[in-house]
Structures are given as C-alpha cells and as structure tokens.
C-alpha cells in the first residue's frame, strides 16, 4: 500500500504541531506452527497443528495456514480438527523453543525502541515516534523489522502501522501472511465507521451479539450512541467503545505492562465423574498457580474456577477475599468450596482451571515513565 502522508493538526491559539504517534503492531504468522515447519522440513507445505492429539482429548494451540484452509483454528478440539482434515499432522508443543525464538524477535524490536509492549510470545506493540536509529518513517521501520525477522529466524511476520494501538492491531491482520499495512490518521474515521462490530479489538462473540441486538452492527452505528448509554450497557468498557467509534485510542505503548491474572488449567484424557478425582486435580492446579505467583512475586484477591463439562459447555465462578491468596493450601480450599457449590453432579468434567486475579503490584517496579515529545509527522 502506498505511503500516505499524515496532515498534522494545530493546537488552538498557538502554532505548535500536534503530531500523531507512530505505533507498529507486529504479529508473527502462525508462530508455533511456522517454527515447527521451519525446524522440520518434512512438515513444510502440509496441514499441521501444534497441540494435543485426538486420542489425548487435546485442543489445537496453533494451526499452519495449510490447516486453516480446512477451517481449523486455535482452541478447536483436536478430534474435530482431524475430522476436517484426516491427513492433519499433530505436533506436541515445544514452548522452550518458542520462547527462545520470541526472545530473538524481541532483541530485534529493542534495536529500534525501548517502548515495546509484548502481548504474547508472538505479538507486540512498538512506539517508534522516537526511535533509536532516528528514522522518520514508521513504515520504513516496520519493513526493516520484518526483513530482520525473516533473515534471523527464517520466519515471517505481519505488521500494522498507525497512529494508535487500535488501528495498528487492526492493520496487522489485513494483509496476512507476511503483510505490511498502514492506516493513516486521515483514514481512521472512515475505516472505523465501515468496520463490522465483531472485528473491533476487545469485542468477543458474546459482546458482539449483545451489540448487534442493540442494532449496532458497524462502527457507524456505534458512533450514534452517547458515552453515557454505552457505559450503562457495558460498564467502563462503554467509554472505550465510545472513543474508538470516533477513531480515538489514547492508550500508550506500555513497556511495563503487568499481567492481570495468573492461572493454570488441565484437560483430562478421560472425563472425571468422581469428586475425589476432581479434588486431586484441583490440588495439582493450586500448587501450579502458587508456584507461578511466587515466580512473579504477584498475589491476588480473586480466585476463579473454570469447569468445562464433557459436552464442552463451561462455567466460571469467582470469589474475592480480603486476605491475599498466596499459597496452595488456601487456593485449594477456596477452589473446593467453589466446586462443591456450583458443580452439576450429574455431568462429567473434561477440564478444570484456576485463575487468580485482582493482583498486587510486583515487589520491584521500574521507576521511569514514558516521555511525550513532538516530532515531524512522517509515516
């Protein structure tokens, strides 16, 4: 796509330019699956998924583009994936390898800016308004990053470039795989008005149905609603919907982004019917979550129990306590109470999960903030 020059606005009553930020969203293409195809030439060009095998009651963690052509996607039960593509290759995940590659990619980002906000192993936001090489064009930086990733990891990434995080993430998905797409400031309002509501970042399937039931099918419909009405229906998220409907998203790229929850879950090879077996699984999960909290020095006040039944229907139930949840015994006791209060004893269980949220701040916290400076507006 041709580069479009952004036209800066001026602040009222002075001659200071108001310069759009330059945000890049990098999203690796089918990351886990692509690493496996890179490392195993016999898998290249073939439908492949990373995840549990059908005979292990697993689910798909990642799918190659060849597999996606059969309608296979992450979180799909492996049994269904195999039905859709009988020749599908199943590969067990190698998270230590994926983490190592992710660190390689992060090192590339760090050559250009310290303002990097990882979202997961395979995607991140970068603020390159100010950047280390002093390159004026964010498109040029995104292109250089993509080239470096390909040269150093033999993998491809898609990049979205825009003036805020909402549009940068949207843009990175518009030209996959190996894409590079720009949404310039003057394009933002038209893009968001035409955008189907289900495509809005942060709008899941249930929320999309709720919005559509209110007659909100596109961004143009959303823009007709007042902030007060949206807050009434959606809580504080309504304010976010109000702003993005006007192509506004002031969220900064936060290199110190802290996790909001710590959890673990387990799928079972055979559905559990006995409460004793579920208690044993909860004890294991409680130990795992407590270990992860200790590792990150983060503790919480809210415990959420997730129960997925054999028919794939699931429930979540939470309880918030005054004291900090920080040891396995407390987690296990609270989880057991939740399970006994809400479990349907007539149904078998295929998965249990525990998540601690409402977290405390980490013990050590960086002592610097992002500086906001104004620079010439060249994309």
Automatic annotation (TrEMBL):
Stretch forming the signal peptide: none
Organism: Stenomitos frigidus AS-A4
Every UmuC domain range: 23-204
Molecular function in Gene Ontology: DNA-directed DNA polymerase activity
Organism ancestry: Bacteria, Bacillati, Cyanobacteriota, Cyanophyceae, Leptolyngbyales
Obligatory cofactor(s): Mg(2+)
Name of the protein this chain belongs to: DNA polymerase IV
UniProt record similarity statement: Belongs to the DNA polymerase type-Y family.
Top-level enzyme category: transferase
Claim: DNA repair is one of the keywords in the record: yes
Cofactor: binding details: Binds 2 magnesium ions per subunit.
